[in-house]
Amino acid sequence: MELGLEGRRAAVAAASSGLGFEAARALIAEGAAVAICGRDRDRLTVAARRLGDRAHPVLADVATPEGATAFVREAQDALGGVDILVTNAGGPPPGGFASTPMDAYAPALDLNLMSVVAMCKAAVPAMQERGWGRVVAITSISVRQPIPTLILSNTARAGATGFLKTLALEVAKDGVTVNSLLPGYHATERLRTLRGGDWDAVANEIPTGTVGDPADFGAFVAFLCSKQARFVTGAAISVDGGEYTGLL
């Protein structure tokens, strides 16, 4: 399927590995030029080399609104503009209500909520002016089905989902779509850190019986950026192998 992304310009945050990297790879495969960011210069350089000539590495840390804004600005400068924004960031430390101190919440909100707001603030107005744009936010299945050991992530990403839905309604008439993808368990370093890399044990918790392939997730990101997905906006879509068990 031709997705109509040839010549489009994308900024994909936290894309030196994992789901962000695969989103960048899928967009490049469809003909987009992509700016990727990461905090580690060496890892970022390796990722850009793997992605090829259409990848533009930007050393940036989206853990703060200032860093998130700086990434989008540098992506705009490198690419001549940004048509597609994929927001993404690592997760905050694990913990529950009793074990998580008050002072841990503000950094988590900066990382998984305010960074999303900042990137959208930097990228979306120009999309509105051009009459075309795509925002895809990578959040978590915990938005719908909170994970008991991840109270910081549950809290921050739920807030981001509320922001994204509101934004989607506001910019829909300007040709800009705003959606979020809610990944379940995928074979990433984040999951390895949280679960020790026992993929078989994780797979047993998923109805499909398999851990998600990050490349499949990346392909879904690319589709939501496509011309065919122009009628999809304001959606929060689970990509989790059936892990979420609710009806809505």
For the structure shown, list the relevant keywords:
248 residues, alpha/beta, Rossmann fold, 44% helix, 15% strand, globular
Quaternary = single chain
CATH superfamily: NAD(P)-binding Rossmann-like Domain
- Estimate percent helicity: 40-55%
Terminal residue distance: 29 Å
The helix/strand order is EHEHEHEHEHEHHHE
Q: Largest beta sheet, briefly?
A: 7 strands, parallel
Low-confidence stretches: none
Stated plainly, the CATH topology is called Rossmann fold
CATH class group: Alpha Beta
Kindly state the number of beta strands.
7
Question: What is the strand content?
Answer: 5-15%
**Rough outline:** globular
The domain count comes to 1
Radius of gyration: 17 Å
Q: Give the name of the CATH architecture.
A: 3-Layer(aba) Sandwich
Major sheet strand order? 3-2-1-4-5-6-7
Count of alpha/pi helices: 8
What's the short version?
The chain is α/β, with parallel strands linked by helices and 248 residues long.
Task: Describe the protein's topology.
Blueprint: E1 9-12, H1 18-29, E2 33-38, H2 41-51, E3 55-59, H3 65-79, E4 84-87, H4 105-130, E5 133-138, H5 151-171, E6 176-183, H6 189-195, H7 199-203, H8 214-224, E7 236-239
Parallel strand pairs: 1-2, 1-4, 2-3, 4-5, 5-6, 6-7
Helix pairs in contact: 1-8, 3-4, 4-5
Describe this structure in words.
The model has no long low-confidence stretch (mean pLDDT 94). The protein has one domain: NAD(P)-binding Rossmann-like Domain (Rossmann fold, 3-Layer(aba) Sandwich). Helix 1 (18-29) packs across helix 8 (214-224) and helix 4 runs parallel beside helix 5. The chain has a 7-stranded parallel beta sheet with strand order 3-2-1-4-5-6-7, sandwiched between helices. It has 248 residues and is an alpha/beta fold. It contains 8 helices and 7 strands, in the order E-H-E-H-E-H-E-H-E-H-E-H-H-H-E.
